[in-house]
Amino acid sequence: MSRLCDLSIDEVTEGIRNQHFSAEEYVSQTLERIAKIDFDIKAFVRVNTDDAIESARRIDNKIHKGEKVGYLAGITVGIKDNISTKGLRTTCASRILSDYIPPYDATVIRKLKECDAIVIGKLNLDEFAMGSTTEFSKFGPTRNPWNLDYVAGGSSGGSAAAVAAAECTASLGSDTGGSVRCPASFCSVVGFKPTYGSVSRYGLIAYSNSLEQVGPIARTVPGIIRMMNAISGADPNDDTTRTVNTPYSAEASTNRLRVALLSNLTVNAQPEVSKCIYSAMDTLSSAGCICEEISLDSLEYALASYYVIAMAEASSNLARYDNIRYGFDMDPEGYEWNSYFSKVRSNFGEEVKRRIIIGTYVLSSGYYGRYYLKAQKVRALLRREFKSLYSKYDVIIAPTMPILPFRIGEKIDDPIKIYYVDIDTVVSNLTGMPAISVPAGFSNGLPIGLQIMSDEFKEQKIFDAALLFERTAKIQVRPPL
Amino acid sequence: MISMYGPKIGLEIHCQLTGLKSKLFCSCHCNYREYTPNENICPTCTGLPGTLPLLNQTAIEKGAMVCIALKCSITNTIMFYRKNYFYLDLPKNFQLTQYNAHGITSIGVEGLLEYGQGEARIRRVQLEEDPGRLVYLNGSSSSLIDYNRAGVPLVEIVTEPDFHDPKDVRLFLNKLASIVEHLGVCDTSLEGAVRCDANISMGGSRRVEIKNVSSFGDVEKALKFEMTRQKAMLNYEMEIKGETRHWDEQRKITKQSRSKEEEQDYRYFYEPDIPAIQIDEDYLKELHSKMPELPDERKERFINYYKLTEHVSKVLIEHKDLADYFEESVKIYFAPKEISNIIVTDLMSYADDNSKKLGSTIRNIKMTPKQLAEIARMIKEGIVNRKTAKQILYEAVVSGKLITSSENEKDFRKIDDESLILQSIENVFETESLAVLDAKKNPNVANYLLGKVMELSKGRVDPGRALSLINKKLLKS
Questions:
Q1: Is residue B204 part of a domain?
Q2: N or C, where is chain A less crowded by C-beta within 10 Å?
Q3: Residue B1: what pLDDT?
Q4: Rounded distance, CA A194 to CA A172, Å?
Q5: B429 and B393 share a domain?
Q6: In CATH, which superfamily holds the domain spanning A4-255+461-473?
Q7: Mind listing the pLDDT tens digit for each residue in A61-87?
Q8: Any CB–CB contact under 8 A between A341 and chain B?
């Protein structure tokens, strides 16, 4: 029999409901596994041991009494440490929030708990989700389970690595410019960025609020679908959410999908990556899809537009961290308030400071029109162009990452190089449209991800294509750990 | 000289929407004044990480009503912007507001308000959130922060620099206060519910902003002080700096602010967490039908229906409570002239005696409109004279008791019987024999005797009649 920790979401909920194993057994094994291997991976920043066992016992009790249990009963979900969990420290991997314990649950956490999912712990990230490698964390970098010398991707590096290393059934990340898809690609798991407004952001600690969404990571596409059925939908606490057409189906549609490969993104990719994506297109064709190649000139401006908007919003979103009501231990005695603010805010990490400074600059009078306004125009243009593409195609495919995972520390001294790796993912955040990364293959033992995108609120089309690809391509998603 | 230095004054009024139940972006109570510090708060209004603003739709409605009353055109797409600056009382270190930094996004623009003889153009009307409140401790270098107020909805009304005299500013503000009261959006009597900043430039010199003025009366004083200061500076050919000054309530002067607020770059940008709100024709039509009677319309009605004078009507409608009190009273006993006269003269003099304003007086008196109606009836029916009526009024105002016919009737009825009046006079002549001697030589002393008679009869005799009886008696004796 395979290890419990390797089971998919469907298998875990089935197993627990049919009493093949108890939720407590499953959680205990998960906790043992974390204790055994996370010292190497460093995906978890906090393990919710006591609460998790208690929740598992509650679920087992319900089952013994013959009561109904939730849709995700007994699965263990790791949570990126920028999603608020009531009573459980939430730090954004920042010194500035090292003592912050939220008094409320994010909507996605509440929904997971209502489905009887178990919050197993909090996962590592780049400080305030700013980064693509999970190296900018006050806890240190998360390592890639496929090769511990390599980055796990980011900013939801902990979320992807933990799922890949079977330290939890599934996880939540957040995707502002690719932060779910990038580490999913680097760790060979499935990561999904929903349409802007389909999952509540209430409780997600904002980095760039017009771009980001909470997104699930799982080892299979049906796992993602199940997670999405649990967390998506209109939320009275988030005015930007909308009603969505759930439940999503995990039965692949028999319709012939019209697929376009965005060649701008393969041209610029590392040859190994590019090759892998073309072979993925062949796989889809062989499975009955109608595939062709397209290119889009305006993509050239996407990355710059993304960073201008993200940094501008970040500079304002992070202004609230003044350590007055919450934060970390620093005695205000003897400070005049302005100098206290400065002293407090010097505790941000280098990358966060860089983004706050650039963001402040692009919003300043005299520069607003030159940068922020232009970026918004690019954004509107991209949205129009993608809208028209989706009148011709069901989904668009591309690499998730232009390069293979790289060594820890390799790019840390050159911010531009790190910004550049987001080039394939940011466009979906700018347009607000959904995108998934599914494992597409390996090169030298390092994972490559296929990105599948679609029109807003057309998540089902993405799932259809991803299910088809997953079932046809059969790519390995568990590292030998 | 004066015209060359003629001032141009503009105003920025912040008016809390106290008529709402909840704050602008969360469900905490709008009426924060009843709470102990930091009790009326939630994760959203204290800006905890991950919280999102949820726009109070009623605030949009009330804001739009203010716009209609100020004849503003209402924007069809309204948006919220972040005004970024660091301050202790600001939970998020940005304020959500609507400033038209990038196109028109405020709820209303380009309005007009007529007051007294003048009029002022309204530049914009916008919704925004109030910050928290700083409490400074005496003898301590630290201060406390109370977030109960944080997120309370404000409507900001900005005028063009159309005032040339601080007196007009006061007239304008009184009119505005009456309007927001009639709309039911703001209880202007609550401390801090209306605040006013002013800007003034003399004869084309640079603009000086005056902040921290907490009452409308002080706005006029602050502006007068500032005009005097600036005129003096111009006379000495000193340059007037464009700056922000604070009104020192105790010393009644303006002082230069330490911070250089005018140099601040607020980096306004659109708040993505609040989707843009569309205001369509249907919404506006419905709103127009819901508009309550405004002060000008009410004044016209008072003149036409109750046949009151322009002046009396104006005094009454200046405070909604006063006009309401009047109308309630009239409903009980239809004597609009008598009732309005009592309010405008007797009640006003009561307020003056207690150095209070008529508007705040009407809220605090114990007399009910029904009692006022009763007093008017007694006057009308000749049961009491005006002087007695005034005493009854004062008593009712203070104690809430109307001393009428039943138990003390005799004490208050007018004394018509001449023999009774003569009896009083007799008594006075006996006790005041020395004064009586004086009065024979000096006619003014007769008035002293009259006073004594009035005192003895508790004011129930007609003074003219009593005086002639006194004079007659003096001649006789």
A1: yes
A2: N
A3: 40
A4: 12
A5: no
A6: Amidase signature (AS) domain (3.90.1300.10)
A7: 999 999 999 999 999 999 999 999 999
A8: yes
